[in-house]
């Protein structure tokens, strides 16, 4: 007598790291970034439909573990993500993540997925989407400061979505710069490794900072930032962690994802709580012009928001619907009679005994 | 050329529903309830070490999806759980859940598990643990009102942990009562199916209510509750969902898990915000006597709290350490160089092409 198979309602599609790598290779990374940006933009444009809350963070001396939930009333998504700057010393990722998309009507998960790779993609897609509206017209050169796990994704997103043709790389660790330069070779970008942040920003219309220290750092000082530049600051993303000198902030027009969260975690934690900022959805929805003139310094103070993960989960679910690889996970109990959870275990025991 | 296997740090132990059923059968359900109660008690006794927050709930007209995180500074746990009273109409569980335990030092998950079955077990273990300190001495008879998926677990926990020898079952649906009675046959309990709540509580020293309507209901009215009884109310667990008439509450000494959460979700949402209640950890830690005399009506207004899930996750992780069945899930990216997430995908692509 065969063991009873898990009931159909017990199974949840699961995308492993390996399955995600296959999806990235099949789709092509630039195509995937462009498609992701479209989903992210669509969701930002219907911002008012989402339940929004700052993420729920558990801080420790080593790092942070966060849950990032949101819902549009039909689907519910959340991401689990950590941030541990010293993890690389033990061969671990600074940021790892996984996420779940659920059906609000039943509360049942419909997708479980790795999100370490997917977060890198959605973060890059969000940065480039914002820059499309904030960077100076015709920007071709980006300085990429911080050449860790996120950097290549950023560079390719700005190429695919904003038309950047040159990236100038700098990291305090030259090995990281070398790694990024090798990975970006042959990808259609001119790649210029630099030995200082000052050198990296020479001639750059866009400056992306993505460093991982969990402390107040000053990656950019005020005199380094000329007029007309767009700054994409994505490394400062928790209380006590910033990358830019305060004087840069006061000279910039600041754009954020969700101000209630960014005031806790972003660069603007250095400013008064009522310092004016613009939520990026207002730009994407046409309620705010974004960049107004050539001299304006624009700053996207990005910490990552739950709707971006929701968009990424929604994108991935649609891909699975078109046949992308995944496995089915026996995650939810599915007894014959939904009220007979206890009996399900007993019947399984009898089947095991008889098998 | 073989494809690269997922790196060791990418793998997270996963306990599926089937694996959990095997564990329950191997351990024996009463033994498992007793062991779980010990873990839950240990954690309640060190209550002050935990980061505590009311769970994060996303409500809809159909139900609720909740995230329940907590941490003791070394481990971090969270549970995803839904509550959808009408789910049984489509063959789904009212409550399904899964959970994760992580290492605070790295932020890396160390366990992913189904928690539909595990939640049923930990809820029953918590109820019986509280009753051991709150029910009248020598209590032998329990009324079990609401005979859904949770009911058999409750009955066996009260047998194993409190020495109950008789359960009196009632549900508005006689089929549910019949199901519970059949499941409990031969388990060492006298089982009395009843046709009304009034009949069920005859001679009972403990009354457990576990019904699922998402609304204010009155499962027990004031005249039904005599002096000396212990009430274990576990079905009211979200805003607008209660089971007991308000007059019962004002006659009872009320014990709760975490008052900040219970005032939002429990029976006591019917009372003033400053109505005195005792957190159950104070009883378990010896700071409050629990039941003081034979005439006192005690009420455990239980909505389920994150530390109970944390205890269950910790218990399960220890079981896996002793060899309990599970599989390894490729959930976390583990590149050779932790900063080379991008390169990992490229190298995988080359290996696929060469294979």
TrEMBL record, chains A, B:
| InterPro entries, A to Z | NAD(P)-bd_dom_sf, ODC_Mu_crystall, ODC_N
Pfam families named in the record: OCD_Mu_crystall
Residues spanning the membrane:
none
Q: Which domain of life is it from?
A: Bacteria
PANTHER family hit by this protein: KETIMINE REDUCTASE MU-CRYSTALLIN
Q: This chain belongs to which protein, by name?
A: Ornithine cyclodeaminase
Source organism (scientific name): Paracoccus angustae
